[in-house]
Design a protein that fits this description.
Serine Threonine Protein Phosphatase 5, Tetratricopeptide repeat; elongated; 27 helices
């Protein structure tokens, strides 16, 4: 009875490793060396792979395939010049070997020259038999170049070669998603399912596309078919739960999330979704239980800590909310969402100094949202520090030069700081941007609206708008 390829490879590896231990010299066919080298490289045993290449080339000095494997290792080690020199030699011997162009493409890609990599791969495609691997590599290069249309076509070719190539199928859908062509993805997946009706992956992806378009009933049907195809497919239950949540069917959503926990180890994301469903149902004790389980399962999941914090904030338990957001900050002090949440809680507690510090951390860590600038300026205003509040708003305007609310607030602060000319300039700029938001100024600074010049200006704006 003939040995299958795996048994042959195992036998060759055992023989090769025995040779290394005993210093005996055994002869192997070039094909055996290729199998041995591939085994070591695929398992991350680079040193043994290099040793096999060295001995292989000693026994078969003219083997093109072994030399190409040497090139592969050189590229892996970023020794591009040596690799390219060897490829030049090999191309003189066999100019129609597609692997030479593939390796050149690999070098270009690692040098971030993706267009050149594409050109080499297209050359390889011309001299090969429509190679599956080349289409896959092309797809990845196009993704690096943000050419999602070309990437989509390449991955579609991969799926045509092998309809069980789910990695390429995912990439096709990813390209449709990035292009926001959800209808195109739906059409493609439905076509795919015509010939692969029991593919749970395709049903799952189809459900997500329907979900993105707000077609919840169609999404549920797709996830149900995914579950029929594979009743242990956790992703389908989870996504179905999300759809049911969006439809307000929280108890049914909980059932699906609980199913994911029963099939496999519980995840923080499942606990979090269950907690939110219970919160919507008014089951505060159960919501709290699942939120606490969320952070216990994954202490680094920011959404978990924020859910606990929001839960206590909603119940006006600001001291507890502060305790949990500070726990989150102790775990990950580089998360701007934590600092922003802390700042809001400190503000509610009237601790403006701490709120000011938290907002500064929020901005320093890269959160430049409009609300952040507005709330920080309000904090400083409550402290009576008009100069600092003005500086915050000036910074905010750099990010949002067309947001009138920043100008209205800044005009009021300049006026309170007795910088009258600057106040006049800013109130006029605010009115020019959006006169309909004048009420923001009037509601925040009613005491200033009685100043003669300002009262006259406001009256004129109101007359003009009627």
């Amino acid at each position: 009875m003939a040995l299958d390829s795996n048994e042959n490879t195992d036998k060759s590896i055992s023989k090769f490793e025995s040779m290394l231990k005993t210093d005996d010299v055994y002869f192997f066919d070039a094909e055996d060396f290729e199998d041995i080298i591939h085994y070591y490289l695929n398992n991350g045993k680079i040193a043994l792979g290099k040793k096999a290449i060295q001995i292989g080339l000693e026994q078969h000095p003219n083997s093109l395939e072994l030399k190409l494997l040497r090139v592969e290792v050189l590229v892996f080690e970023d020794k591009f010049e040596k690799a390219e020199n060897l490829l030049d030699e090999l191309q003189d011997i066999d100019s129609r070997n597609d692997e030479i162009y593939i390796q050149r493409a690999n070098i270009s890609s690692k040098k971030d020259n993706h267009q050149e990599a594409v050109n080499f791969l297209l050359e390889a495609l011309e001299i090969s038999d429509d190679n599956f691997d080349i289409h896959s590599l092309l797809g990845m290069e196009y993704l690096f170049m943000d050419d999602f249309e070309s990437a989509k076509r390449s991955f579609m070719r991969c799926v045509e070669f092998d309809n069980a190539d789910y990695s390429s199928l995912y990439n096709v859908v990813y390209c449709f998603e990035f292009l926001e062509d959800y209808q195109g993805a739906i059409h493609y997946l439905n076509d795919y399912l015509e010939s692969n009706p029991y593919c749970e992956v395709a049903w799952h992806q189809l459900g997500k596309m329907y979900q993105a378009k707000g077609m919840y009933q169609e999404a549920l049907t797709s996830f149900d078919f995914a579950i029929i195809s594979d009743d242990s497919f956790i992703g389908a239950y989870f996504e179905k739960g999300k759809v049911l949540e969006n439809m307000g069917k929280y108890n049914e959503a909980i059932e699906n999330y609980e199913t994911t926990i029963s099939i496999d180890d519980p995840t923080s994301h499942a606990y979090l979704r269950i907690g939110r469903c219970h919160e919507k149902l008014g089951n505060d004790d159960l919501a709290k239980y699942y939120f606490y389980n969320t952070v216990h399962e994954d202490p680094l999941l920011d959404k978990g800590w924020l859910a606990i914090t929001d839960f206590h904030s909603r119940l006006k338990n600001f001291e507890k909310a502060l305790y949990y957001i500070n726990k989150a900050i102790n775990i990950d002090g580089e998360n701007p969402l934590y600092w922003k949440k802390a700042a809001k809680i400190y503000f509610q507690l009237g601790n403006f100094d701490e709120a000011d510090f938290a907002y500064k951390q929020t901005v320093d860590l890269g959160n430049y949202e409009l609300k952040t600038w507005m709330n920080w300026a309000e904090t400083l205003k409550n402290m009576g520090d008009f100069n600092s509040s003005i500086q915050v708003l000036v910074q905010g305007i750099e990010f949002y030069p067309e947001e009138s609310q920043l100008y209205y607030k800044l005009a009021g602060l300049y006026l309170k700081n007795k910088e009258f000319e600057k106040s006049k300039t800013k109130i006029k700029e605010a009115i020019d941007i959006n006169p309909d938001n004048l009420h923001l100024f009037e509601s925040e600074f009613p005491e200033l609206c009685e100043i003669k010049w300002l009262k006259s200006l406001l009256t004129g704006v109101k007359k003009a708008s009627t």
